[in-house]
Amino acid sequence: MFALSLDSIAFTLGPLTVHWYGIILGAAALVGLLLVVREGKRFGLSQDFFMDLVLLGVPSAIIGARLYFVAFKWDEYNDNWLDIFKIWNGGIAIYGALIGAFICGYFYARRKGYSFLRIADICAPGLLVGQLIGRWGNFVNQEAYGGPVEESFLRDTLHLPNWIVNQMSIEGIFHHPTFLYESLWNLVGLGLLLFLRRRPFLRVGELLMSYFIWYSIGRFFIEGLRTDSLAFQGPSWFASLVDGLWSPMTAVFQAGYLDPEYGNVRISQVVSLLLIIGAVAFIVIRRKTGAAKERYADPIISFKTGLPAGIVVQDAGDEAEAGVNRNADKDKGSKKE
């Protein structure tokens, strides 16, 4: 069957070429921002607070994602440094993006006088919705796909529409739409996070940890289907351990090919396992030691002013005047009695 794939270029304006990859990433950031702004208003955080965070965080995430990818693919870039900047051709790593975004977010939150964990909790669903949309950029670029499959598997088993099936034909061979698997996994995870953040038992930092746990579980198993994984050469016992943890997938899927000369352990799978273990330990230890006293639903207090977010004291004179007015109101009340 003739497969017509999508053009990665959306349009051109003279010398300017606009790629679908960039448009999709921009849309992902916008939808994530809208979700975060809406939740932030519940805690008195302004839209400008998150707008500034995005303006700083998105470039930081892109830089982190690209550096992470290039670091593990250095042999492909050391002779042509200009290719490092061609992110429209793909080649960014989600975990690198998270590292860049979280470093930026930490310093931004601290500079504004707020706990990083409080801000990160609010942003977690926005990150997940951004990832579920952003994966469609990989779809357009025909990258981050899985191992070969029969066309009938895509059409008859998964019942995918023609425009997805056709795009999964790379050089005449059909592949697992791992971008779609991860996007749907993140969609379910988004619903879970939106549910959890309204539960009274949720403590500060635990929504962020839930994001790490959910995303990493999905990424661990989906990564095993891919044929373009970043990898390293690890000890045979460790490679066997990772393969053993992934083995339940063999009941339905076949693992994607990993060139043994390139590596025997997929980096994203190792990072996923570390994040799952670390996130679970974070929740358990803080609960056991009593450090998790503050709840997600509690007001966000600025450590600079000691006041809840959204309440601004311009100077000491205003604060003193406010105190005088409060005392005057009390005196009036006592006279009336």
From TrEMBL:
Top-level EC class as recorded in UniProt: transferase
Pfam families noted in UniProt: LGT
The EC number(s) this enzyme carries: 2.5.1.145
Keyword Protease attached: no
Localization annotation: Cell membrane
TM spans (from-to): 20-37, 49-72, 92-109, 208-225, 267-285
Domain of life: Bacteria
Listed GO MF terms: phosphatidylglycerol-prolipoprotein diacylglyceryl transferase activity
Membrane topology: Multi-pass membrane protein
Keywords: Cell membrane, Membrane, Transferase, Transmembrane, Transmembrane helix
Biological pathway: Protein modification; lipoprotein biosynthesis (diacylglyceryl transfer)
PROSITE patterns assigned: LGT
Keyword NAD listed: no
Residues that hold a 1,2-diacyl-sn-glycero-3-phospho-(1'-sn-glycerol) according to the record: 135
Family: Belongs to the Lgt family.
Name this protein carries in UniProt: Phosphatidylglycerol--prolipoprotein diacylglyceryl transferase
Phylogenetic lineage: Bacteria, Bacillati, Bacillota, Bacilli, Bacillales
